[in-house]
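Follow-up to my post from last week.
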Amino acid sequence: MENTKGNLEDRTQEGAPLATRELTLSMGPQHPATHGVLKLVLDLDGETVVKCTPYIGYLHRGVEKLAEHRTYLQIIPLTDRLDYIASMANNIGYCVAVEKLFGIEAPERAQYIRAITGEMARIASHLLWLATHALDIGAMTVFLYCFREREKIIDLFERLCGARLTVSYPRIGGVRNDVDSKWLDDLYQFTEEFPMRVEQYETLIDQNRIWLRRTKGIGVISAEEAINWGLSGPTLRGSGVPYDVRKFMPYGVYDKVKWEVPTGKNGDVYDRYRVRMEEFRQSNSIVRQCIERIPEGAIMADAPKFTLPPKDKILTDMEHLIRQFVLITKGPQTAPEGDIYVATEAPKGELGFYIVSDGTGKPYRMRIRTPSFVHISVLPKLCEGGLVADVIANIGSIDIVLGECDR
Amino acid sequence: MEPLEIADKIKEKFPLEVLEITNFRDQVSVSVKREKITDICLYLFEDPDIRMDYLSDLCGVDYPRKDYRFEVVYNLYSIKYRHRIRIKALIPADDPSIDSVVSIWSGANWHEREACDMFGIVFKGHPDLRRILMPDDWDGYPLRKDYPLEGAEGWEYRGCEEVKELHTHDDEWNIK
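User reply:
Got it. Predicted complex:
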């Protein structure tokens, strides 16, 4: 402060206070700690954040507009690019919504496969969150440990459908291909050792004094405020609200397996961290139960008007070939008219699809309610009044992906 | 409470405002006039038996061929009672504006900004109505049905040709 010109002038008068001024700092859009292209304009008074204004839209690709010009089937790869950390969860959310619109239901085996892969996506997403969140705060080692396990899940995805990140694996009315027992065995093997890995991460940071000082009591939001702001997922549960779409509006097989909704109490960065660490264990348990119970049977619903025929039939049977051709080029021709809002629990929170159908093969309007969009809108509330360094901790704790926010 | 019961209660409380109640796949939508939207939302938020404390989603929809061109859709949920309802406010094309509900649900802030950005619907009483996803100086409203998917009408992507024309006299580029 002393070497600024204004202060020197002030000093000439005896006893006059030192002049200070607010500093406006533009953080982003290219900044590693913002987890994507997020720009924050911070008005600072010394180290304290007076005002925080987020600017988004750098990754806006118009997915909602594009979806109006694609058939229902063609939209699945678009949803991959929303939350690209956990594309499987987006695919499932979209397929569940469209199935509800069409009035069809995936067979039980497909439901189990979706639950398994959906929870795998949650584990992978939380691993990336923990890795980067800890890295932002300064715990480098956690990053490498988390990526070790994340790599295993992504390898399993690759074996399942050929893609590592943009999976496009679920289909309307089921899933693309069946899982084999070798794959399930390997996944079961992974789930056996994974709880021990979670303990390892916890020994790295749970008792770490720096970690606790950086996370406890930072970015506090009360339960009532969190609901009013529309927060969801672990960010809301950290404030003590047990709202989980999988429990409140069960879809798939989530009401058939035993699991709990972990909640925090104080609504600070630390509690949100604890909630996600517990979710590792719950997701792991769900995957294990599903593998133990998965029944044999079909993986696609028996709804010829909406679902693609099996590949071997297309090559040998004219009728199936025509059906496939119409579905691919024009979309389902008997879609009911109406509108529907279906929410699923993605790793980051409530992922909702509001689809308006006018009876053609393409959606008339598809609105995607993404958790990251809502969570970034609450950032000013979390950051204002805190320190600059805590902005980083706050961004990490709400677990955002800008691809999902900007759509 | 069943969604249809809630719809009936809204109809009872605001008989002149409710235009239509539809039920599709067990999801109930209530179409209302736009004038008293804050009163209706406040009623749903505060009524002890309904208590819609969670605004799941707010978005706009464009129907160029309908009497009311725009709809603002409120997907409401009650975490307390676990019930859901959808309110649709109908907005005419010549004056696309509606009262803001940010004072009821803080989370509506960015959703309303996005609806304004994408459809040009003005939310009266919104604390900070700026464009959110598109650049500040953008012309037009992308999610309207008359907005083209790629470029204006007759526009065609010509790729390298366009760059070539720009630089035909540019020695440095040396494009023939």
